[in-house]
Amino acid sequence: MVALPLSYAVGYPPSSSGMMISELSGICAWRAGVLPRAALVEATPVPAGRERSGNYAIQVVDGGSRSALSSRNRTNDMQAEARAMARAANASVYSQELLALKYNSRPIKVLRRTLEILIGLGTFALKLLVDERSGHLNQNKRVRATELRRVFTRLGPTFVKIGQGLSTRPDICPPEYLEELSELQDALPTFPNAEAFSCIEKELGLPLDSIYSSISPSPIAAASLGQVYKAQLRCSGQIVAVKVQRPCIEEAIGLDFYLIRGLGFLINKYVDIISSDVVALIDEFARRVYQELNYVQEGQNARRFKKLYADKEDVLVPEIFWDYTSGKVLTMEWVNGVKLNEQEAIEKQGLKVLDLVNAGIQCSLRQLLEYGYFHADPHPGNLLATPEGKLAFLDFGMMSETPEEARFAIIGHVVHMVNRDYEAMARDYYALDFLSPDVDVSPIVPALRNFFDDALNSSVSELNFKTIVDGLGAVLYQYPFNVPAYYALILRSLTVLEGLALYADPNFKVLAASYPYFAKRLLTDPNPYLRDALIELLFKDGRFRWNRLENLLVQGRKDRDFSAKDALQPVLKLLLGPGGEELRYLVIKEAVRVTEAIVLGMMIDTYNSIPDILRTVVFNVTTPRPLIMSGSEQESMMELRNQVLRVWGLLRTSEAFDPALLQPILQVLQEPEARNLGQRVLGGITQRLAARLLQQLLRTPTTVLSTSKKL
Fold first, then answer.
1. How confident is the model at residue 548 (pLDDT cuts 50, 70, 90)?
2. Interatomic CA distance for residues 429 and 439, integer angstroms
3. pLDDT at site 674
4. Which of 93, 467, 608, 697 is spaced 20 to 30 A from 324 at the CA atom?
5. Contact at 8 Å (CB) between 667 and 571?
6. CB-hemisphere CA count at 13 Å for 246?
7. Would residue 135 be called left, alpha or beta, if left means φ above 0 and alpha means ψ between -120 and 50 degrees?
8. Residue 536: how many CB atoms within 10 A of its CB?
9. In this protein, which residues make up the domain named Protein kinase (predicted)?
């Protein structure tokens, strides 16, 4: 669906003093698919002295009645959806074989369309060339931007979608082009009302006036595949948005995809620099567009998206009215909002654009990496800021899914990038299905190192997504990569979101905004792949990197779903599991180091707190160091102690912290493996402190005896 900048309202059934809500449900619910907003209250005739609301007294329905209403509502909804699916039974699906069969026998029509595209784009390119040669390129930007929008509009839906993508990229297009191309999102030419209303009646099998008590006399907005009207349902009074498909749209996009697919064959055959299967990418995109033509499928997509992601208070997904939906007509809840790239209008409502952008990024990360089901077309016309501060997602025609293995591989890829582990980064491309298992990744490693060593001179959070995409793109072109179709849609989705973020703040960094989510997943997700990634991030050369853990906790706490308790359980399971011997060895070594640092740190603090005169009398020394160790060693030990205390402070001050969360540790310590682990740690600590004491008594050189081999 498109951006709808008018008011949202909720309607109630017409008054009838003797009518109960159960009677209303029998009349309305089978049509609307859901009960009106008053579904959780019961309307009864008004007794004397009772509070009135119109002709009804409002009283809360008890739990049992509410459950019955909810069950009846679900049943009605399922029945209405089944009827909608039956109406869309003949919806078209993408088939390259049928398109080839259809257009191979129509060479004149194919030639005419080819010439139309070449003339339209070629003329525009020629004008740009003339402007550049004459030195008027900047002077004519506004004129050329308007011309490009008109060219895309004339060439039809396929090119409109290309223009929509460009309209969200301020790093690619000048502001004049962005402003003009943004009109392609909801300001396209409309088609006659008579055709739209006739389509509604034909698709739903009912006269228009029996469906709506009112409908806007002209479209509120028009997009590439359809146009939208604002209406009020006659049955329930609900204000809704009604999207009606453009006539003959299948014919238009079918011919375009036939031509584009032919171009893809030529690219695969003659353009060596592009190693991906272009035809496969075109086929995937075409399937998604054809799915957009089936509005029942779009409604089902919206329902699934709502179930997965609208549990967050800052995300809104409109309801679908199934009995007023078919293959070419979609009726959904009306949403009042402002497009996400209209910064001034958003701020006038007292909202912060970056808060909404961050909500979109966090929701998108959940889409891409948690459930794998994602909105593949999030241009500004499909993302609205509501007056309540929620981010509303619209238009669920183009959706895609990330395979489960790839989701974890993407998170692992970020860890490997942070660690600059380019060998592991190269191996990730197997899991991402970029490379077949028989391809040797060793030649790819130097190319990754050359790019990221330069790019990571600043912190990872300072990188923007476009920099990484461009850099990886240069690597992909040099080696036998095959970019899967789902990944191409991920790139499109993320680049669009970054483009929206740059509207609000040119210095915005998507990776920095994504850090809290990645940190939370690494600390709390029990998936074995992510547990291994966490160990890889925290341990290096047998030493624990407390600064990494501290950074993860600092970032993870920024995610409102982070819980210290959730971070504890997976680590315990991993540590004490049957395959955790290597990790236990590392943990024992680190536990000895940390305990020594804390104990000796306390001794140093106590010693330093004693006045100099007493220190001389009691200890017969004037040195500021109470122990035999070098200054650098003491400094390193104190820093370790302080890091550990900071990490504990972060855990202790976490929002969901409860001392009871330490109880599982006590329970685990009862296990034989845990007791053995504890004994080994205690033995290591005893040996280490004994060595320190012996050194102190004998005043041996500053070298500390190492007991690591004995551990």
1. confident
2. 10
3. 53
4. 93
5. no
6. 20
7. left
8. 16
9. 214-544
How far apart (Å, rounded) are the C-alpha atoms in residues 580 and 572? 10
> What is the rounded distance in angstroms from the CA atom of residue 191 to the CA atom of residue 180?
21
What residues contact 208, with CB distance under 8 A and at least 6 apart? Answer: 197, 200, 201, 215
**Cα 42 to Cα 97: distance, rounded to the nearest angstrom:** 56
Question: Is the separation of the CB atoms in 13 and 234 below 8 Å?
Answer: no
At 376 the pLDDT is: 81
Identify which of 182, 244, 230 has the alpha carbon closest to the alpha carbon of residue 6: 230
Model pTM? 0.69
| Catalytic position from the list 186, 377, 395, 421 | 377
For residue 605, indicate whether it is catalytic.
no
* 237 close to 321: Cβ distance less than 8 angstroms: no
**CA dist 453 to 418, 419, 456, 460, 481, Å?**
11, 11, 5, 11, 22
Q: Would you say residue 66 has pLDDT above 60?
A: no
User: Which helix (H) or strand (E) covers residue 43, if one does?
Assistant: strand 41-44
231's tokens: 């209406």
Give 188-205 pLDDT, tens digit per residue: 788 999 999 999 999 999
Q: Are 545 and 538 in contact (CB under 8 A)?
A: yes
Residues 223-254 have pLDDT tens digits of 888 999 999 999 999 999 999 999 988 888 99
Distance CA 272, CA 268 (A): 7
Dihedral, CA of residue 377, residue 378, residue 380 and residue 384, to nearest 10: 130
What is the per-residue pLDDT for 640?
A: 76
